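Worked Example 4.2. Consider the chain below.
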Amino acid sequence: MKKISIVIPVHNEEGNVYLIYQRMKTVFSKLENYTFEMIFVNDGSRDNSQLILEQLSQEFDNVKYLEFSRNFGHQPAVKAGIDFADGNAVISMDADLQHPPELIPELIEKWEEGYDVVLTNRKYPKEISYFKKKTSEVFYKFLSSISDVDLKKGGGSDFRLMDANVVQSFRNFTEDDLFLRGLTSWMGFKQTSVNFLACARNAGESSYNIKKMMKFAFTGITAFSVKPLYLAAYLGFMFSALSVVGYGIYVIESFVSGTEISGWASLIMTIVFFGGLQLIILGIFGIYLGKIFKQVKERPNYIIRSKNL
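Applying the procedure from the previous section yields the following structure tokens:
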């Protein structure tokens, strides 16, 4: 019997926890030679999620939980579950049932074919806005183009299967700003992906707002690429050269035409433009410097308040 560990981060998911376990139980009842455990990671929920997890773990021996001391974020929650999983393979997925448990047999089938990592490539249903679909697609294409990892396939989802050997290597990561989708691709191993149609959220509301999505995007970009630093340098050289050439042309034209060099508005506009450009460049440097500052303190990715593992 091979054991499959299912890692599920939980943040205010009291309406989904019991249902996802029942659906998982139905899925594995049709799979011979496989047992499963579910590791729920309570990421600082403010509802009754922890109470339900404790009750569920008392009712079923294969239900485990980790309770964080506060909200540390989705990526540290997934990392924590993987750190404590001991299955022959580990599957990470969300608790909102947008990741269908019924896809798991296909992930296991690919794993049995010899793949170490089985990613999932999310397809959106028709009711999802064109803006969300397009922005997600553009972001991962952009991230793939400026970094050393390819996130075009399976990049937009934390629904994946990893072999125990991959998990062992995965536990060695001590990065402060975790971007697991990029780390999974960066690690290598033998990988493949399968498509799935994202389901509608069963209950509750998504905690991902525009601010969190922007932060997540910057984390992904700066975690796997230093090209923004080169871009800042290139912009500096380019605009400096353009300003020298442009001002030289302006001076020559003034002498030839006999007109005065004037233009208060254009001068102020130029100062504001280059001042803004300098702030952008300093901001890019600041992001990388901030990541170094947080990393050298070597604080843990998460703190566990209680567990039944």
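The chain has a mean pLDDT of 78. The chain has ten helices and eight strands. Compare this with Example 4.1 before moving on.
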